[in-house]
UniProtKB/TrEMBL annotation:
Ranges of residues in domain ACT: 38-115, 127-207
Role: Binds amino acids.
Name this polypeptide is given: ACT domain-containing protein ACR
Organism per entry: Musa troglodytarum
UniProt keyword annotations, A-Z: Repeat
């Protein structure tokens, strides 16, 4: 969906030098807008950097009400209007400091897209990632298998879509309270869970991987769902009359990119989910605008309905 050149930032010494000479610049302004804090981010462009910035803001529970995304040559320039969960400007000094440290020159550079899920070694938990067929009682069966193998579930997050399920479970050794180390036990757990994850009438095998690295859970769940190809079928429940998102894709052959316009009811993390999907599909957002309003949202001349978000993403 576009073959415009992208500046690849390799992790060699020369690339590191260039990033140190041109560190990201972050400006946080509470005076430029009446009802939101304006955050401007300028940095060297590389694949995945937009997602990394949005991920930082989302993890701080900030709501992005407007955004302007632009790339010029090898530079990436973003402007975000954000509020807290209560719709107020961001005035908490701790959060402001965290934004500066995470995105600004103190961070020196963002991690590569291969590490954008935030991999951090952990001795406290074993992380079990699973995909399979969804059905009632599945989570209970998973927990029963782990309990029978003397494992405790410290934390779990599970997504379902189109009869498919993806889960990231944080598991500890019942006796020690630390990560599960025995490879034979992990192999036995994997075999049992894969059987549980496979549906009775489904030819698709369940999948399970084990890691001792802490990852950004929601980012990883996006990757797992995409890898499981959950989008290939659409299941509509009985009585499901909720308005579906409207997505339009237009080809701009003369500019060698496509324009994606998305309209849907607004919700937290919608921009994060959208950019995650595009990034996992190996598309690059060169330009984009985001606008949310209580009554309506307008974008590139399109009107939209109550409580909506509209995107115009050039990828």
């Amino acid at each position: 969906m576009g073959s415009c050149p992208v500046v690849e930032v390799d992790d060699d010494e020369y690339a590191k030098l260039i990033r140190r000479m041109n560190p990201p610049r972050v400006v946080i302004d509470n005076d430029a807008c009446d009802n939101a804090t304006v955050i401007r981010v300028d940095s060297i462009k590389k694949h995945g950097i937009l997602l990394e910035v949005i991920q930082v803001l989302t993890d701080l529970n900030l709501i992005i009400t407007k955004a302007y995304i632009s790339s010029d040559g090898s530079w990436f320039m973003d402007v975000f209007n954000v509020t807290d969960r209560n719709g107020n400007k961001v005035r908490d000094k701790e959060i402001i400091c965290c934004i500066q440290n995470s995105l600004g020159s103190d961070a020196c550079s963002f991690p590569g897209i291969g590490n954008s899920v935030g991999i951090v070694p952990s001795k406290e938990h074993t992380f079990i990632e699973m995909t399979g067929t969804d059905r009632p009682g599945l989570l209970s069966e998973i927990c029963a298998v782990l309990a029978n193998r003397n494992c405790s579930v410290a934390k779990a997050e599970l997504w379902t879509h189109n009869t498919r399920v993806a889960a990231v479970v944080h598991v500890t050794e019942e006796s020690t309270g630390g990560a599960v180390e025995d490879p034979e036990r992990l192999s036995a757990i994997k075999e049992l869970l894969c059987n549980v994850l496979r549906g009775d009438n489904d030819s698709r095998m369940g999948r399970m991987t084990v890691s001792k690295d802490r990852t950004h859970t929601e980012r990883r769940l996006h990757q797992m769902m995409f890898g499981d190809r959950d989008y290939e079928s659409t299941v509509v429940g009985a009585g499901d009359d909720k308005p579906r998102p409207q997505v339009a894709v237009m080809d701009c052959a003369e500019k060698d990119y496509s324009v994606v316009i998305l309209r849907s009811r607004d919700r937290p993390k919608l921009l994060f989910d959208t950019v995650c999907t595009l990034t996992d599909m190996q598309y690059v957002v060169f330009h984009g605008t985001v606008d949310t309003r209580d009554d309506e949202a307008y974008q590139v001349g399109w009107g939209s309905s109550h409580h909506c978000r509209a995107f115009s993403l050039s990828i």
